[in-house]
Amino acid sequence: MVEKIGFIGAGSMAEALITGILEAELFSADRVYISDINQERVESLHNKYQVQIANNNQELVKQVDYIVLAVKPRVVKKILGRVGQQIRPYQKLFSIAAGVTTKQLEKHLSTDVPVVRLMPNTPALIGSGATAYTLGQAATEDASRVVKEIFSSVGLIVEVKEDLMDAVTGLSGSGPAYIYMIVEALSDAGVNVGLPRKVASKLAIQTLLGAGEMVQELEKHPAQLKDLVTSPGGTTITGLKELEKTGLRSSLYQAVESATAKSKELRGE
C-alpha cells in the first residue's frame, strides 16, 4: 500500500499487527508510525522494525491515512477527546479497544469519518489469530476491504453485526484460555496414565492442532470426523461417554455464554 498507517498504543497486539503487515509487505517500515506514552517501548519497536516514531498522537494523526487505536478501553475517551476532531473523513479509524462500540467512538469524530471496530484474539501474536469486525455508520466497502487486508496478515478475519461482538468476545476472544485449559488437562491426563510430561504435552498439543486442521481443511461437521475415529465398543467411544457424563459440552456452552454476558455487563448493558 502507498498509504501510511499509524498505531496509537504500542502494546503486544500493535506489535503483532506491525509484524504481520511488514511481513506481508502491505506497508514499508517508513510508512508505519507508532505513538505511546511509554517511550522506551516506542524506541524498542523502532529499533526492532525501523518504523517511524510520532512524538505524540496529534502528530501521528496528521501523518497517516489509517489509524489503529490499540489502547486499553479506559483511555479511549481521553485520547479521542484530544485527537478525534483532527481525524478527517479521508482517513479511517480502526479500533481494537475491547468493548468500545462504534457509536462511542463516533461521538468524538466528525460525522463522515469511517470507523471499524475489531476484536482480535491473542494468537494474532503468532500470526494465527481470529478477528471479527463490524463497520460504523460512515464505513464503506472500501473500509471493509482495507481492514480485511490488514488483519488477515495476522490470521482469520470475519465480519459480524455489532450486536454479536459480545458473543465474539465470549467465543474467540476468551476462547484461547479455554483451549489452554483443555491442553493442560489432556497433558495431565497423559501423565496420569504413565506418559512422561514432555511426551504427554507434545501429544496433547499436536492432537488439538491436527484435529483443528482436519475440521478446517476437510470442511466436514466435527460430528462426522468424530465418527471416523469412533469404533463400536472401542476406546474412543468409552472416552467420549465419560466426557458426556462429566459435562464437557455443557461446560463449554456455559463458558461462552457467561463470558458473553460479562462482556455486556462491562459495557454497562
From TrEMBL:
Keyword NADP tagged: yes
Q: In which pathway does it act?
A: Amino-acid biosynthesis; L-proline biosynthesis; L-proline from L-glutamate 5-semialdehyde: step 1/1
Among InterPro entries, the record links this protein to:
6-PGluconate_DH-like_C_sf, NAD(P)-bd_dom_sf, P5C_Rdtase_cat_N, P5CR-like_CS, P5CR_dimer, Pyrroline-COOH_reductase
Principal localization reads: cytoplasm
EC number(s) per UniProt? 1.5.1.2
List residues of the Pyrroline-5-carboxylate reductase catalytic N-terminal domain: 4-99
**What GO CC terms are in its UniProt record?**
cytoplasm
Where is the protein situated, by its record's location annotation? Cytoplasm
The signal sequence is: none
Can you name one GO molecular function term for this protein?
Answer: pyrroline-5-carboxylate reductase activity
**Where does the Pyrroline-5-carboxylate reductase dimerisation domain start and stop, copy by copy?**
162-266
Q: Which GO terms describe its biological process?
A: L-proline biosynthetic process
Q: Which residues bind NADPH?
A: 57
**EC category name:** oxidoreductase
Keyword Cytoplasm among record annotations = yes
Which Pfam family, just one, is annotated for this protein?
P5CR_dimer
Q: Which reaction does it catalyse?
A: L-proline + NADP(+) = (S)-1-pyrroline-5-carboxylate + NADPH + 2 H(+); L-proline + NAD(+) = (S)-1-pyrroline-5-carboxylate + NADH + 2 H(+)
Question: Which keywords belong to this entry?
Answer: Amino-acid biosynthesis, Cytoplasm, NADP, Oxidoreductase, Proline biosynthesis
Q: Which residues bind NADP(+)?
A: 8-13, 70-73
What PROSITE patterns does UniProt report for this protein, alphabetically?
P5CR
Q: Which family does it belong to?
A: Belongs to the pyrroline-5-carboxylate reductase family.
PANTHER family named in the record: PYRROLINE-5-CARBOXYLATE REDUCTASE, PYRROLINE-5-CARBOXYLATE REDUCTASE 3
What does this chain do?
Answer: Catalyzes the reduction of 1-pyrroline-5-carboxylate (PCA) to L-proline.
Tell me the protein's name: Pyrroline-5-carboxylate reductase
Question: Which organism is this protein's natural source?
Answer: Halobacteroides halobius (strain ATCC 35273 / DSM 5150 / MD-1)
* Gene assigned in the entry: proC
